[in-house]
Amino acid sequence: MQKRIFVNNQIRAKEVRLIDEKGAQVGVVSLEAALSLAKERGYDLIQVTEKVQPPVCKLADYGKYLYQQDKKERQYKKQQGGGLKEVRLTFNISPHDMETRANQAQKFLLKGDRVRVALRLRGREKYLKNFARGKAEKFVDMLNQKIPVKIERGLQEEPRGLAMLLTKK
After folding, report:
1. In the CATH hierarchy, which top-level class contains the domain 8-78?
2. What pTM value is reported for the model?
3. What is the pLDDT of residues 16-34, one digit of tens each?
4. End-to-end CA distance of the chain, in Å?
5. So where are the chain's domains?
6. Is residue 31 within 8 Å of residue 14, measured between CB atoms?
7. DSSP strands (E only) in the chain
């Protein structure tokens, strides 16, 4: 959901804080003066923000402005990272499988993602939570040998088992 950008005659303020096409601040001027200056120089008057009083407006080409905003948004999404990935362990997981999951978690952590380690417990396994906690601690130790990790949220009980949240130090 994008916010609506007001251009030229869509702007409803009586006076605006004007920024010219080079980025220099002109000052507070009436809307009519800003519109005539924009028309005279061959640009559009674009309302950048309405959160302040008077609203900030800029002289620019509207198409180029939209393109720059879209470009910034794409760059921001690319930088964000920090997503949440999940690694699932089972009660009777073999040491080799646990090592494979640790390698996968390491890849996620190196990319900048947080890792949720979920240990599923089914049936009678729910009564052996201490054994399951040992498995989870063993997994964290195995992962710590590969890459230093920080436990963001410790091992907690959930309806279907145990879960913890790990991040890179």
Report:
1. alpha beta
2. 0.54
3. 999 988 888 888 999 999 9
4. 34
5. 8-78, 84-168
6. yes
7. 15-19, 25-30, 44-49, 56-60, 84-90, 114-120, 149-158, 161-168
Q: How many Å apart are CA 149 and CA 154, to the nearest integer?
A: 12
Amino acid at 103: N
> Which residue, among 92, 91, 140, 147, has the nearest Cα to 116 in the 3D structure?
140
CA–CA–CA angle 17, 21, 24 (5° rounding): 55
pLDDT digits (tens, 9 = 90+) for 135-151: 999 999 999 999 999 88
For residue 130, report the phi and psi dihedrals to the nearest 5 degrees: -65, -40
Can you read off the two tokens belonging to residue 122?
């089914």
Closest CA to 116 of 91, 82, 85, 89: 85
DSSP SS3 for 135: helix
Contact 11, 57 (CB under 8 A): yes
pLDDT in tens, 60-100: 999 998 899 889 888 877 666 568 899 999 989 999 999 99
Q: Which two tokens stand for residue 107?
A: 């890849």
Domain 84-168: which CATH number of 3.30.110.10, 3.40.50.300, 3.30.70.360, 3.30.420.10? 3.30.110.10
Residues in the chain: 169
Cβ atoms within 10 Å, residue 58: 21
